[in-house]
């Protein structure tokens, strides 16, 4: 009953829903007949209707591999013979096997080529098999799907169909592009992390339509039926246009109701959604391309060097063939011991020195062909594979916070990493790793905070280098300048006097005037109290109780909000819970043993 009254209040509140500012399918807000490009029709809770044309949509099975059983051999051979050396030795092997112009046997030409190409193809197969294994792990993930009669059961991602009702729980990924129907929150909101889509770690808020808010539990979907008419699959992550037909009413849809595949549900116990785009129709897969066969700059440069070697080989062979043609015309009759016994297969005719020269040119190209280093590609392939193994085991590339090691998905471009000399960053979050620390503040014109920022430390270090100073801990020259040393030592003492305290993520504030309740002795105590309360109240974050420490952790839309809340908590004003109309804060004062909840 209470939840029903709250929902009724929400429906009457246009301020809460911002309905007048939401995007519409048409300019006047009325539903329009979706034309070309907007032909997708989804029957919610009736996936069997999409098994036949014209509503037959792709499955939710995805693959990111470059090859399959049928295409591996032709595509892999094509990739190998894009290399100049391999192509040259292929032609030499064909000549050796089909003519008597080669000075070597056909086996001696074919065997090295087969070994080199086979080894490279084996490496490609190994790396592609790893992609296949990763795809299988994703395709076999389980998620709750409505079966019938209001009963949800686990189902692999790859078997999800358009129109299925899906229940996604906290910290799980969305298996397809879903239309949000309801969530564990009364107003139908949920928090989504889209780091896999756009690299952003801040949470984004999604809201369900008010008409679907009563679908709050499994039983509510027992007789649920609706129809979605929306845009066709496209790669735009930030747009969506469509209509929901429900209870003989039509409601416009916008991107705030769409939960994209590979984004993660955060700070929300569960959500219900209907699959709109599945598999390669989903927006994340529409943005992905087939795994390209990339070639590094070193490999391209190596091809140019081989071209140069080939021209040198051609020049040597051409000079040799000219000399042979001259000798064949004037000297060959005297060289009776070099003339073959079989006159039929004799390719040397003193009466046709031009033909003899051309045929000898082919022989010389094969004879001097080892000027082209066929083993070079093998050596490089082996080195790349070993480099990939070292990258996977590199402890310096291990992320302690997330427990994630480096993973070389392909070894084709290892050497490109060593040629990076400039990194261009597009935003502050990339530079700061989305980590914000509370260092200083100004309250009623009074500045608080003694700790230096990274920028100030960098400036101090540069100043020390300019005047010959050194940080504490660095080797001290015998003729150290006392003036420069004293300034740097003072800066180091200020920034490290509390190093024995455990580090608190998001809070690096140091000032005895505010910490440990000393702020109550300040002359502007009322302003400080108001400042702390504002820090703990003005935000849109969600608290999560850490059972190990007893403190609250905060998931906010931005790292700034999280840093403010952590600072308020450390100052004694701990945000603990929120409702639709209220925010609750636990305030700790030195004169009271227990916190006061307001």
TrEMBL record:
Any one GO MF annotation of this record: ATPase-coupled intramembrane lipid transporter activity
Keyword ATP-binding: yes
Topology with respect to the bilayer: Multi-pass membrane protein
EC identifiers of the protein: 7.6.2.1
GO cellular component, one term: membrane
Binding site for ATP: 426-428, 561
Superkingdom assignment: Eukaryota
Chief localisation class: membrane
Compartments, as annotated in UniProt: Membrane
InterPro entries noted in UniProt: ATPase_P-typ_cyto_dom_N (IPR023299), ATPase_P-typ_P_site (IPR018303), ATPase_P-typ_TM_dom_sf (IPR023298), ATPase_P-typ_transduc_dom_A_sf (IPR008250), HAD-like_sf (IPR036412), HAD_sf (IPR023214), P-type_ATPase_IV (IPR006539), P-type_ATPase_N (IPR032631)
Record's keyword terms, sorted: ATP-binding, Magnesium, Membrane, Metal-binding, Nucleotide-binding, Translocase, Transmembrane, Transmembrane helix
One Pfam family recorded for the sequence: PhoLip_ATPase_N
Cofactor(s) this protein requires: Mg(2+)
A Gene Ontology BP annotation from the UniProt entry: phospholipid transport
Residues at which Mg(2+) binds: 426, 428
Family of the protein in this entry: Belongs to the cation transport ATPase (P-type) (TC 3.A.3) family. Type IV subfamily.
NCBIfam families: ATPase-Plipid
Name under which the protein is recorded: Phospholipid-transporting ATPase
Organism from which the protein derives: Solanum tuberosum
